[in-house]
UniProtKB/TrEMBL annotation:
Ranges of residues in domain Cobalamin synthesis G N-terminal: 36-112
Chain's gene name: cbiG
Organism the protein comes from: Tepiditoga spiralis
Highest taxon listed in the record's lineage: Bacteria
Biological process according to GO: cobalamin biosynthetic process
Entry protein name: Cobalamin biosynthesis protein CbiG
């Protein structure tokens, strides 16, 4: 995940409290928040909750795609998960801040205040997605009213005691759930594009070319390190709501190219020094797993591989390229 730190006023040494976040400086406040939405998965906002709320009216699209936003006062006494509390991870970020700098988390969501892990929060913490998102409220309401829900999930998941295992369950793994299913984010997406392409066009092609059955399961977005170090790459990663990205250098990619026995003489090699980006990058990120699909359309190429073992840490911090700082 990429974490941004935004302050209304300059606060001395504020970065020391959040070493994992990039302090966005230089622009006016609106531009800072826009930048946070555009490139980062989570925003730590220091200032009035009323100020950022006014901006959110212009920028917020959906709790499924908005970045996590937590708000703190300038004294760092209180921490409020304001936006995308469960799906985006604002609640867990607030709890992390509470633990690390002794702020007090102000939590108002019904399941959280009752010390219950709602199905959306369980999914987020285990890198799962919900297939019927409109039914989340049905499960969480049942949990609030009955203090239990029925599930049929693999035994490697650590279940709350009020998640009762059943053959015919409200919630199942991949399929069969009476109310909804939980799907693992177990795919890696590789991307290659010409330097003049913009994120909107790449996203348009992504929706046209990649089936939704793949789109919902993307865990990590990868490419050449030169592509990774562009604004376009990270803007696209936010558009598809991927929280992990990685760029590989020529030496790393060439090893994968040799193993995949890819044609070594083509136009890509003339520009990048290697014959392909997408498939070898996916091969490395997936830990040498199977290729599911590779599609090329003019100046854009996508590859999807299955990950050998999908990541269970949904909040893994990653490097931030200078171009978006």
């Amino acid at each position: 995940m990429k974490y941004a730190l935004i302050t209304v006023r300059k606060i001395k040494n504020i970065k020391n409290f959040f070493p994992y976040a990039v302090l966005i400086e230089g622009e006016n406040l609106k531009e800072k928040i826009l930048k946070g939405f555009k490139y980062y998965n989570a925003i730590i906002f220091i200032g009035s909750i009323g100020i950022i709320t006014r901006y959110l009216k212009l920028m917020s699209k959906s709790k499924l795609f908005d970045p996590a936003i937590v708000v703190l006062d300038e004294k760092l006494r209180y921490c409020i998960p304001l936006l995308s509390s469960h799906f985006g991870g604002a609640l867990d970020l607030s709890l992390r801040i509470e633990k690390e700098i002794k702020s007090i988390s102000v939590i108002t969501t019904a399941t959280d205040t009752q010390n219950l892990i709602g199905i959306d929060l369980f999914a987020r913490r285990n890198n799962l997605i919900v297939d019927k998102k409109e039914n989340i409220k049905l499960i969480n309401s049942k949990l609030l009213n009955e203090k239990k829900i029925s599930v049929n999930l693999p035994n490697y998941f650590e279940l709350p005691k009020y998640y009762i295992t059943s053959e015919k369950a409200d919630v199942c793994y991949e399929s069969g759930g009476k109310i909804l299913n939980l799907i693992p984010k177990d795919l890696v997406l590789g991307i290659g594009f010409h330097k003049n392409e913009n994120a909107d066009y790449i996203y348009k092609k992504y929706l046209e070319l990649i089936d939704v059955k793949f789109r919902n399961r993307i865990q990590i977005l990868v490419s050449h390190e030169k592509k990774w170090n562009t604004k376009v790459f990270h803007e696209f990663s936010r558009k598809i709501n991927v929280t992990h990205t990685k760029g590989y250098n020529n030496f790393e990619l060439q090893k994968a190219i040799d193993k995949l026995n890819i044609d070594k003489e083509n136009i890509v090699k003339k520009h990048m020094g290697i014959s392909e980006i997408c498939r070898p990058a996916c091969f490395l990120a997936s830990n040498n797993m199977e290729e599911l699909i590779t599609i090329k359309d003019k100046n854009i190429k996508f590859s999807i591989f299955r990950i050998q073992k999908y990541w269970k840490n949904p909040y893994l911090e990653e490097d931030i390229p200078e171009v978006i700082k």
